Amino acid sequence: MNDFQASLRRPLRKRWNYSFIHTYKPVLDDAPYRVFNTLDDYRKWCKKNLPSWLGYGQKL
Questions:
Q1: pLDDT at 34 over 90
Q2: What DSSP element (H or E) covers 16?
């Protein structure tokens, strides 16, 4: 409870900054954006380039 009350005393900007944890995502974070002609192209790219633990693969 004390931690919660202490966090309420912080300015909103500081609470906002503390609320997000950036986790580097290999390949996805390496380019500002990508463009695909079709959803199928996107899915093939994901399958070929992204590690499975990111969760962008097809369901089994």
A1: yes
A2: helix 12-18
